[in-house]
Amino acid sequence: MLRAKRKERLSDFSGGKNYPAVLLFSAFFFCGLLISYKYLITGIGLYLGLWILSYFTIYAGTCRYCVYYGKKCPVPLEGSCAHRFFDKRETGFGYVQFIWAGIAYLLRATLPVIIIFREALYVYGVIYAVLFIAFWIVHIFFTGCPNCINGKCPLNPDYADN
Questions:
Q1: Residue 154: pLDDT band by 50, 70, 90 thresholds?
Q2: How far is 93 from 56, CA to CA, in rounded Å?
Q3: Taking each helix axis from N to C terminus, what angle separates 19-36 and 122-138, rounded to the nearest 10 degrees?
Q4: I want to staple 104 with a disulfide (CB 3.0 to 4.6 A). Which of 5, 58, 68, 124 is the partner?
């Protein structure tokens, strides 16, 4: 599996260290919100509802298993808020947690993608896709994974395949 090179081992991610990922993640959110505005209040309400549902999904399925549970993590509003809704689980962090994270991101992106294809908003689609891909490239190779201490995560540079 393709993994980033180790930079640091951060036990808490500050906004400054994680600024590029936060900026891209925010731009991804607002671009999706702008696309959803095509369906006015219904689109915005559904989009925000899916984002809220995605956070509960990722908190329950992924964040509660992570070493960043209750701390600032590399992805905005995820690990640092999970403790408010779900108890921590010590059973480990692995591929199953990636499935839950994938479901959360599917919830976040589904409505804008449907609108992009339904309304032929292909320029918005390209921008939305570039923001999504850029966020994950920055997160995995520059700000998040190279600095993460979650050794049980398959994307961690120190992860040993078992």
A1: confident
A2: 17
A3: 160
A4: 58
Tell me if residue 148 falls in helix, strand or coil.
Answer: strand
Partnered with residue 10 across adjacent β-strands are 148
Beta bridge partners of 148: 10
**Alpha-carbon 58 to chain mean position:** 9
CA distance 60 to 11: 21
What average pLDDT does the chain have?
88
CA 1 to chain centre: 19
102 vs 91, higher pLDDT: 102
Q: Which pLDDT score, from 0 to 100, does residue 1 have? A: 56
Q: Among 99, 107, 64, 67, which residue's Cα sits nearest to residue 82?
A: 64
For residue 92, the tally of other CB atoms under 10 A from its CB is 9
Tokens of 97: 């947690």
In degrees and rounded to multiples of 5, residue 138 shows phi and psi of: -65, -45
For the chain, what percentages of helix, strand and coil (3-state, to nearest 5) are there?
A: 60, 0, 40
Mention every residue, 6+ apart, whose C-beta is less than 8 A from residue 1: 154, 155, 161
Element (H, E) at 102: helix 95-118
